[in-house]
Amino acid sequence: MVRNTGRSATSDWVIRSAQAGSIERIEAWFGNHGYDPHRHDTYSIGRTLAGVQSFHYKGSLRHGVPGNTLVLHPDEVHDGMAGTEAGFRYRMAYIDPSLIQNVLGGEPLPFIAGGLSNDPRLYHASEALVQAVDHPLEAFEEQDALYDLAVALRAVAGKPSGRKRLDYQSAERARAFIMEHLHLGITLEMLEHVTGRERWSLSRDFRTLYGTSPYRFVTLRRLDCFRRLILNGLTLVDAALAAGFHGQSHLTRHFTRCFGVPPLRWLERLRRAR
Q1: Where do the H-state alpha helices sit in 63-111?
Q2: Which residues, if any, are the signal sequence (predicted)?
Q3: If you average pLDDT over residues 231-243, what whole number do you get?
Q4: Containing H/E element for 151?
């Protein structure tokens, strides 16, 4: 992917990896404000390349600098802004919790307090995932990196205490059903029928294992579909309806809560990076 090194210092930009795969990777630069408060159901694993990357997280203002690793937990509210007038540049990989569960096999998702870590185990384990976005990840390399990341997250976070036994198989059946039937009006009753698990226990385990509620999971998968459609040239209205939203305003509300900017602004930043 070719970068335009002649951009003005006031022009924010985001580059997404063009590689089709299970992990979304970006590199971005912001001169001031980046994102409003938002939350998504992936781990956000990042590396500040230059400047100070500031963000509100769990009630405090954090500051990412080169040398540490950002680890934002799924579905935790955060924003993003430059910590100095010099702006900041960073890379981020968005990791579906199900990929971590492929390694952990039903353990609660590891939580890294504060959203930042100086632990060298996390830094080295995340290195392959936050390399330049124009470097394609081979399938084997990605799988190896995901294993290393899951093990490092578990080691750095420590083992949670006081958790009841989780029904990973039922939660995974529910997740697989959702992925195959996004076109339906999915309900907890449906998931209860598919899994044979009482709906509220299933919902609790789903949150612990995948970082978000079943309803949010459905909504965010539809947002993924919407992003693919607008990148392929569909209008916002047509893409919103095709992805399962009631209309553009319904879509915009959910999109902004998830990504911190409205869809047109998100698309504009990507276009600037081309």
Answers
A1: 97-104
A2: none
A3: 93
A4: helix 139-157
Q: Flag whether pLDDT at 5 surpasses 70.
A: no
- Give CA–CA dist 29/6, Å, rounded: 13
Q: Which residues on adjacent β-strands are paired with residue 93?
A: 25, 45
- Residue 267 has, within 13 A of its CA and on its CB side, a CA count of 16
Distances (CA, A) of 246 to 39, 181, 195, 225, 239: 21, 17, 28, 14, 11
Which residue's structure tokens are 């002649």? 6
Residues with Cβ < 8 Å from 10, sequence gap 6 or more? 31
- Percent of the chain clearing pLDDT 90 (strictly above): 79
In sequence order, what are the residues at sequence separation of 6 or more whose Cβ sits closer than 8 angstroms to the Cβ of residue 264?
236
Look at 88-92, 132-136, 197-201 and tell me which has the smallest mean pLDDT: 132-136
Q: What confidence tier does 22 reach under pLDDT thresholds 50, 70, 90?
A: confident
